[in-house]
Design goal:
mainly alpha, two-stranded parallel sheet, 4 helices, 7% strand, disordered C terminus
């Protein structure tokens, strides 16, 4: 099971890099709230929100972007399909 978590973490890191790269073309900042929602719609993350924020921040700083730590609260899941899977 640990191998699956490592793969999932790698996927999340790649998505973070892609998200930040896409944002850098149009904007000079990255919102942690918007980024987390976008990433969690695509994959279930093996890390919690604060760790995801740190990954986003590191990637944004590398790209020369500012970071808005604007998370409203802990985000359970962003996708309705994942909510249904958790409740079963």
């Amino acid at each position: 099971m640990q191998y699956a978590d490592e793969i999932a973490l790698r996927r999340v890191k790649m998505l973070v890099e892609q998200y930040v790269s896409a944002r850098s073309r149009r904007y000079d900042f990255v919102s942690t709230e918007l980024a987390c929602k976008a990433i969690r719609q695509l994959v279930r993350s093996p890390i919690d929100d604060s760790e995801l924020d740190h990954l986003l921040a590191k990637s944004a700083v590398k790209q020369g972007l500012s970071i808005r730590f604007d998370r409203i609260g802990p985000l359970q899941v962003a996708s309705p399909e994942l909510i249904q899977e958790k409740s079963v």
